[in-house]
Amino acid sequence: MNKKYFQEILSYSFKTKNKVIPEHLVKPLLKEEGINVPRYVLIDKLSDLEKTSRLHFPVALKVSSSKFIHKTDVGGVVLNIKDRSELKKSVIVFKKKFKEEKLIVEEMVNGNVEMISGLVYDSNFGMCIMIGVGGIYTEIYKDTSTRVVPVSKDDILQMIEELRGKDLLEGFRGIKVNKDAFVDLVLKLSDIGRKYKNYILGLDLNPIILDKDKATVVDAKMVLK
Amino acid sequence: MLAVEQKKKKYLNLSYLIRPKSIALVGASANKSKIGGIMWSYLQSFPGKKYPVNIKQEAIDGAKTYSSLTDIPEEVDLAIIAIPAKNILSVIDDCIKKNVKAAIIISSGFSETGEQGRKLEDEIRNKISNTDLVVLGPNTLGVYVPSVNLDSMFVVREKSKRPSSGPIAYISQSGASAVGFMDMAECHHYGISAFIGLGNKLDVNENDMLELFFNEKDTKVICMHLESIVDGHRLLKLCKKITPFKPIIILKAGRTEAGAKAAMLHTGSMAKTSQVIDGAFKQVGVIKANDMLELFDYSRILAYQKPMFGPRVAVVTSGGGYGVIATDYIEDSSVGGGLKMAELSAHSKLKLREKLPSFASVDNPIDLTGNVTDEMFDYAFKVVNEDENVDGVLAFPLIQTPLTTDKLIDITEWWFKNGKKPMVPCIIGGSYSEEVIRKLEALEVPVFPDIRRAVLSLRVLYERGKYLMKVKKKGKFKFRKVSELL
User: Fold this and answer.
1) Fewer CB within 10 A of the end CB, N or C, for chain B?
2) What kind of fold does domain B3-302 have according to CATH?
3) How far is A38 from chain B (nearest CA, A)?
4) Within a domain: residue A25?
């Protein structure tokens, strides 16, 4: 049995014939699986702005659409919005620019280290899981390690050992991060991969922001088979 | 026939590829300059029954020749087929009629040449799909099994020697590489239990070979050179079952990516198939080789030396310069071994100080200097083997120094085989050194003519040791025959 939010993803894909799943449908799935995401509000129309009163500023505004898989490339992300009036202005601009699309207003996350983790379905070996040094430079560093799903805690620790940037998780220069929280997140991702291996082609969690307490998935992209 | 029954039967028939009681060579020739002639002459050393099949029925060395497989009055276990591709289909029909257990199609002109060849392979696959006949190839050198004198290779022995019998099963998808590999193996006394050329993998593939050699008692190590992977999922499952008992070393050549994956995602674009393979191999304890030399070195050291259960290496040398380079390679994790230089115990240093010249270094690397004697080497090997802080030994038993003699060969052999700690010897030099290396290799002591190769081989021994400790900790491995998994 697929859980509620994965089922919603499947119905969305079926109805819209889209294989690319927008962020606002992926985040609930992550939450459902026990993965930490920032607090956010979904905006459909301008009046939804009221719902943002429960959020703490600064916030980020993002377009959530299956058309724009790389949001930044289309100017679909505004970071560090400091107050309500600034948010309203940005939302008005976005509503003009991305008429049909849903918007996400999300609390900004502070952290010390950005990691990436993801799933990818390999036609020969099945569902695979990857971890790496993340953020916007992730494809420059190409510092990653891959395994076949499912992975154990020991496997994940060994994967971290293989990263050139492994010291980022070990308190390099006194920068405190919760390595266990990251390991736990990867374990949960592996479980998503195991459960939904027949559906998922790829799932990116990037960046995953680490601080001394937790690991938070700031952006997530999913593509179905 | 039930699918499961057929699978079991096919699995059992695989063993006829390496242990047939009777062989037929389809395409045998009296002309020794033809492939069918060379093969027939090499098959003469096979002690079982041999039947030449030739459509023209020309007599070959006085042996009775048959015009087809079905004319042979007795049973045929293995049919080796070396006739043009276009005539293959009727021979496969004959194999099925004759209830042949296994066939090897040596001939080329199949999927490697294009669409028409691919269709021909499909036709053969269809023919055998409801039978228990196993087919190796096409486009292969076939098999070479020194312990039973079975040699189906058409490459002439004068130019490409055959290795002797030993513990390593060598499976290669590339024929030309296999010729070079085995010639090198012969030269270095790298003993093989069997060679299997997979060719185009029309039927028999690497997974079948893993099953076969897992249960072959003579095989201690399985070494594979692959260009494609037929079923990655099954490969991993089999490797996971086998690696607690037998090391598997794989060279996966060809880095082209299979299929378009979710390349618009970071994970999809960065987790290439080659990286997936690297990670997957680690999960199931497979040792990865990057080239043929690594495949050769790693399979050899794992076959002839015990695993190393810690990263701390002691270096025993009479040349200080070797020690310095070795130290760099041992500790470097990107181009070297990613191991550690052992910190010798105070007791060891004291013991070394007692017997070594005052100008020798008793710190690791232990430098016995140019004044070294055979006895000093023996003594230093003894000390490092007894040191609790040492997990493995890199030895430079250099014979160029004035006071060392041939006795050093025996000393090296003794410690290689009887030392508590795994030892990897490295000797560098010209023709005289080569001679010494051959002498050691003939005693089943692999020697490396290069520092980096020696260090990487130590790393592989440690990788193996670490993996064994891991599976032992999990403690869930009971010996189970792979055939039960079918």
Assistant:
1) N
2) Rossmann fold (3.40.50)
3) 21
4) no
